[in-house]
Amino acid sequence: MLIGVASCISPELLFALDKMGHGDEIVLADAFFPGDTFNPRVIRADGIRVPALLDGILALINLDSYVPDPLVMMTPTAGDELDLEVERRYREAIERRWPGAPKISRMERFAFYERAKKAFAVVMTGETAKYGNILIKKGVVPVA
């Protein structure tokens, strides 16, 4: 354990966050996401829900301020209902670390998969909410 690092942040995830450059993306995937199919770097966070990971991760990195959509979730497939409570819980965790952060944008499911292929890493979480995946684009860390 490290002082100031949330206990849900594993050593492997901490290492990945440190290695990411500005503009790199990380996907926090729900438990059903085909992570190993889309990305060679899969980090396991089984049993950990996305809001806890968002809180822990966003305490360590900046959101990319040079793009309009540093936070992206999937648009539901036609015929599926979107549980707005999922995004509300994510937004609450985001606002705790980054008040006034850009809104979460949405992207079509297969376009999200394509973006996940290019992400720095996919974190397989214990999130069971349908359409519970979120992509985070890392920003520049200010130098003191």
Report what the structure shows.
The protein has 144 residues and is an alpha/beta fold. It has one domain (11-137): 3-Layer(aba) Sandwich (RbsD-like fold). 32% of the residues lie in helices and 17% in strands. It is built from five helices and six strands, in the order H-E-H-E-H-E-H-E-H-E-E. It has helices spanning 11-19, 35-38, 50-58, 84-97, 109-118; strands spanning 25-29, 42-45, 71-74, 105-107, 121-125, 134-137. The protein has a six-stranded mixed β-sheet with strand order 2-5-1-6-3-4. Strand 3, helix 4 (84-97) and strand 4 form a beta-alpha-beta unit. Helix 3 (50-58) runs parallel beside helix 4. The two termini are 25 Å apart. The mean pLDDT is 96.
CATH-scheme architecture = 3-Layer(aba) Sandwich
Tell me the name of the CATH class. Alpha Beta
Structural class: alpha/beta
CATH superfamily: RbsD-like domain
The total of beta strands comes to 6
Low-confidence stretches: none
- Strand order, biggest sheet? 2-5-1-6-3-4
The major β-sheet equals: 6 strands, mixed
Order of helices and strands: HEHEHEHEHEE
Distance between the termini: 25 Å
Summed up, the domain count is 1
Radius of gyration: 14 Å
Strand content: 15-25%
Oligomeric organization of the protein chains? single chain
CATH topology: RbsD-like fold
Q: How helix-rich are the residues, as a percent range?
A: 25-40%
Number of helices: 5
Can you give keywords for this protein?
144 residues, alpha/beta, RbsD-like fold, six-stranded mixed beta sheet, globular
